[in-house]
Amino acid sequence: xxxxxxxxxxxxLAFGLALPSHAGDFSKAQMKKMSTFLSNFTEVGLNxxxxxxxxxxxxxxxxxxxxxxxxWLNNFHKNIKPDxxxxxxxSIDVKYVRESLKRYFDYDLQGTPNVRNPYYEPDCTxxxxxxxxxxxxxxxxxxxxxxxxxxxxxxxxxxxPDGNIQMKGVVYxxxxxxxxxxxxxxxxxPHTWNGKATWAIISLKTQYK
Length: 209
Description:
Strand order of the largest sheet: 1-10-9-8-7
Helix content: 25-40%
C-alpha cells in the first residue's frame, strides 16, 4: 500500500511540474526587475501605448522623445553634453538614441528623424522650431527638467501561450508611492540585449483613477 501511495504521489508531482504555474512563473526578484524595466517608460510619461504606435516612422516624436529622455534621466553625466547651437544647449550622440530603442523596443532606428516643435510660432523669440534636431551624428535639444515622474510596480506576472510575458501592477508617484495613478497591464517579449536576457515592450495600458 505504501508503495502504491508513493507511485501516486510521484505521478501527481510530475504532472504538477509539467503544468504552467502562473503564480510561480516569476520570483519576486524577477518581478522587481520587471518593475524597473517598465519604470523606464512611465518615468518619461509613456503610460498608455503600444510599441507599434510609438515606433511609427511617420510620427517620430514619441520614439525620439523616449530615447533621449531615458538617457537624460539615467545617463545624464555620461551621455549628455553641453553644446550651444541654434537648436539647443545640449546634445547626445545618435548611437545612444539607437541604443535606447533597441534595448527597450528591440527596434532598429533607421536614419535620424528630426522632431519639430508642435507649439512653435515664428514670432516667439526663444522658441525653437525643433524639439530634437539631428545633423546625422548628434541630436540637439533644449535642456529642461521633466514633469512629475511615475514608476511601475509589478505585482503579478505570467507567461502567455505565445511566449510573451503579461505583467500587472500599478503606476505610482515616484516621490510619494501612496499616490497611485492606476493599475496597468503590460505585455513584453523576451529579448536579449548586450548579451543579457531582458524584455522588449509590446504594450502598456494604464487605467487612470
